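Dear colleagues,

For the upcoming journal club I promised to circulate an example of a predicted protein-ligand complex. I picked one with NAP because it came up in last month's discussion. The inputs are reproduced below in full, followed by the predicted structure.
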Amino acid sequence: MGWDYAPAPEARNIVKIQPRYGLFIDGQFVEPKSGRYFQTLNPANEAVLAEVAYAEAEDIDRTVQSARRAYNEVWSKLPGKERAKYLFRIARIVQERSREFAVLESLDGGKPIRESRDVDIPLVSAHFFYYAGWADKLEYAFPGRTPRPLGVAGQIIPWNFPLLMLAWKVAPALACGNTVVIKPAETTPLTALLMCEVFQQAELPPGVVNIVTGDGQTGATLVQHPDLDKIAFTGSTEVGKKIQRAVAGTRKRLTLELGGKAANVIFEDADIDQAIEGIINGIYFNQGHVCCAGSRLLVQESIYPIVLRKLQRRIQLLRVGDPLDKNTDVGAINSLPQLRKIESLVQIGVQEGAELYQCDCPLPEKGYWYRPTILDKVSMAHTVAREEIFGPVLAVMTFRTPDEAVAIANNTRYGLSAGVWTSKGSRYLEFARRLQAGVVWCNTYNKFDPASPFGGYKESGFGREGGLHALSAYVAF
Ligand code: NAP
Ligand code: MG
């Protein structure tokens, strides 16, 4: 290329990161009884950002007690219109502090600032606004019935949309009158911890939201706590199954949002250039760290040569690098173990016969990076057609007829999402009906709205987040 963009980094000094964070219990930061801390890194340069408390059983017990007290004494007694005021305030404060949150999300997790600024953080406040609107209208959400809160919810979230997953879980739970203990992922705790300042600013009663940080063991300990009424989990299918076993036979209600292996299907009558942009967004968005990523591309055979050529050309134009640069398309891989997992699955793909194309852009020396990748000539028998890679890797397959496309798309243990590209309305309606997927996007991809439910079929889990549907996960009758 004869020219290049000038660097356009977002200023990072807008956000003040503390050297050390405690646990957020009963409205305040406290030292962990465990006395232990762990580090969270910036995956783009491997620098340590902060030390974060590691919660063990005693800390978790204290946290659940705080949530129970807040539930019994304050939150369950407040009328819906009072709960709504707090949720509105939280939404407003996140909007006001959105730049701070966006920068911190990109620093701690590696996603491009363009995404944290334009997607994650606006959706966080949108979720709080949306559920604020429901808090005093629950009887209209469930006509003829009297919904009541469940009590205390334990919530566990992953690292790919750290603050957004918090919003998806906390906003409907609070709207329905529950209190929560939430555990962010080990590699991305900082925006959840900054959110505690927002809860304080909004004067949310102490103990309504509590945050415990730690790793998978912390999550497992939380799930086992006897005084929880509900567990809500977003993460891998493997851990989801463990949680399902752990809560079996208890009073705890459960919702699981798990993995995916979405098919993005392009028919010969599609607007090809529009579809290419959607396919690129569907898999390289957020480094492919997206449960609903369009990781399998199904191309109708007649247009396969042109689609492949355009995709190969398009990935060369993707800009990989500094997440804080406003021109970056693809940021850092979230952690070293995730990078190794992507590398190993791509290697298996090549060994099993897939053809490899990669963007040959320069990569920064430090940090965790992976080139936007296409694996062509993949078949259903290949590991990369079945396993979730959770990285910027597109597996390409072909089909001849719509029936064959449906069969391939549904031939997976997952069923979270899918995409279809066609100019025929009748075709995408028919296709959406036949796909076993919680969300089907037509002539677009990765579009989210708080009013729209999201969740899976089969091993992608059960229960829905978003919309009216998420309320039913937090009420009893
Ligand atoms: P993960 O390993 O399952 O971790 C998810 C969360 O569970 C993290 O907070 C993790 O803690 C914690 N955890 C780990 N082991 C646990 C255990 N035995 N008991 C309780 N909690 C435990 O998943 P991940 O690799 O971080 O995230 C990627 C996965 O999430 C992908 O499979 C993706 O598809 C899925 N996902 C699904 C959705 C959806 O809505 N369906 C959305 C986003 C992501 P630590 O991280 O601290 O170890
Ligand atoms: Mg980090």
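Two points we might discuss: The chain has a mean pLDDT of 97. Residues 113-135 form the longest helix (23 residues).

See you all on Thursday,
B. R.
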